[in-house]
Design goal:
Elements: H1 11-24, H2 85-118, E1 127-130, H3 150-153, E2 157-160, H4 179-187, H5 201-204, E3 213-219, E4 226-232, E5 235-240, E6 246-250, H6 268-291
Antiparallel strand pairs: 1-2, 3-4, 4-5, 5-6
């Protein structure tokens, strides 16, 4: 649906204005600003000023809508549904409004950076842009999040170090929690050794970095379903505490995750190696949190 409020009263406008006001007011020392826009998020209600940017008839439908899901964990299987004209139209509008909200936020991030430039802040400010998760938008007949598929896990991470950079694309594996130690690194604040994440300042300044594997975890709101996921440069392994709860995808040859290899005998050795790697990864994270404490928190 289209939001009935005018753009100047829309929630993202309020967040932008408050962020600019805080950022450009006098500060006695360095400041930290977390500008958390609400969108793109349900109920997917762009203001009228942006609601027509992507005509629904021109929006592509998810390529995996008709994919059989019998090889997935039971809680991720969705029955095949015929794409009736009514359902198709609703899906196109749903995706269209999501894109509209993304564009609105892109516009507002541009205004935020422009305000920083006008205030003379770009030479000594680290700018980071990311999201906590993606959105299925009908892929595999799923909506929202609650899984480890690429539309949910692969989120943007854009960074501009103080003074700027030449511009580059980095394919190294990162985790959103790496943002915290990166901020501490640039601020000259010691990174607590209990912190399991790593600064990626080296990457921003032209070096190499990233992880050999990254971890993602999920627990449903009712605490009935839990999942762990390990992603390497080539493979994604997911393990759920449900019957038939294993997933394995070869992201090089199957980037859309159409074929679950978890129970394929030809991939058993790779699967078992990744399971052991996941266990070792979880054990190492426990050390960082518990192993160095000598007193209660």
């Amino acid at each position: 649906m289209v939001n009935v409020l005018p753009l100047e009263e829309y929630v993202e406008t309020y967040i932008l204005e408050q962020s600019i006001a805080f950022m450009t007011r006098p500060h006695a020392g360095p400041f930290f600003l977390w500008c958390g826009f609400c969108g793109p998020h349900g109920p997917h209600d762009p203001p009228a000023s942006h609601a027509g940017l992507y005509p629904p008839a021109e929006v592509a439908l998810p390529a995996t809508w008709d994919l059989p899901l019998t090889d997935r964990p039971p809680h991720l299987r969705r029955p095949l549904q015929p794409l009736t004209p009514e359902r198709e139209q609703a899906l196109r509008i749903y995706r269209s409004y999501y894109y509209c909200l993304c564009t609105l936020i892109d516009d507002y991030v541009g205004r935020l950076v422009a305000a920083m430039a006008q205030a003379g802040l770009l030479d000594n400010t680290l700018i980071l842009y990311t999201s906590d998760h993606g959105e299925m938008l009908g892929d595999f007949r799923l909506h929202g999040k609650g899984n480890f598929y690429e539309p949910v896990m692969r989120v943007p991470l854009l960074a501009r170090p103080p003074g700027g950079a030449g511009g580059a694309v980095c394919d190294d594996l990162m985790e959103v929690m790496d943002i915290a130690p990166t901020i501490l690194d640039y601020a000259g604040i010691p990174i607590p050794r209990e912190m399991q994440a790593s600064s990626f300042r080296t990457i921003l300044e032209g070096g190499r970095g990233g992880h050999e594997a990254v971890l993602s975890e999920f627990t449903s709101n009712d605490r009935r379903i839990n999942g762990k996921c390990l992603v390497t440069e080539r493979f994604k392994l997911a393990l759920w505490d449900t019957p038939e709860g294993g997933e394995l995808y070869d992201l090089h040859n199957d980037p859309c995750e159409c074929r679950n290899l978890y129970n394929d005998p030809a991939w058993r050795s790779e699967r078992d190696a990744l399971l052991e790697r996941l266990l070792n990864h979880l054990m190492r994270t426990e050390t960082g949190y518990n192993g160095w404490r000598t007193a209660p928190y």
